[in-house]
Amino acid sequence: MRIEFILVICALMIFPGCALNQDVKYLERRMSQLEIENQSLQKKIQQLKVDIESQEAIENSIRDMYAGQGAEFFQFKEEIRRLNGRFDETEHRANLGIQALTDSLKNSGNTIDHFSQTVLQNKNRIQRIENYVGFEPGGDNAEKDKNAPVTKDKMSEDELYKVSKQAYDRADYETARQGFEKFLEIYPKSDKSDNARFWIGEIYFNEGWYQKAIIEYQEVIENYPKGNKIQSAYLKQGIAFHKLGEDANALLVLKELIKKYPDANEAKIARQKVSQIE
Question: For the residues of 200-265, what is the DSSP string, one character each?
Fold first, then answer.
């Protein structure tokens, strides 16, 4: 810009008739004004750079602060997904084994009587389950079950939960599981939904299906964070991980329970478990 100004001055000196003295002074004032504005813009740009660097420093500090914790929880969630996949694979293998056994039975004429007896036993068992869960009784047993509980569609929320819990208390886990699952299907918004989901997890735990129990406890933790079974779900999930030999995940869950609910009775048990595992 100074070069242009010098050229203009030279032109005025060469051609004095082309411009007046006041034009030269105007150009000088304009040049001075532009320099002032340019300096002001440079200062603003420098300040913006400082602000951006400060903001980036704050964001990096926050990321560093939560990176470790976020990685641990991500690893934990991945472990849940892996256990779920392991359960599905086991279930698939079991189905293949059942199919193979079924094919073998079909090819053996000597097993027909045994198969018939099994069907009859299953039929009777299903009938007992229907009576507790509330399925419509039928066939020859209908007359015998006149005093059975009302059908599932007519059972109230309290009735269905009660008979399911009673089945659990007497270790009739299959009946209890189907009852609680039907309860969640019919009354998903019930105040007892978290309890029903927790008892399903307890059934799997008692049967030694720790992978499946972990998934059910996780349902309680994620979907009912304010329910009355949240502390118990954390505790039993941690113990289930320990049963599977997954001590790293067990410690992560138990310490999270202690951190969130330090005064709970479950937290006291969790502290004992942590000391044992470590």
Answer: HHHHHHHTT-HHHHHHHHHHHHHH-TTSTTHHHHHHHHHHHHHHTT-HHHHHHHHHHHHHH-TTSH
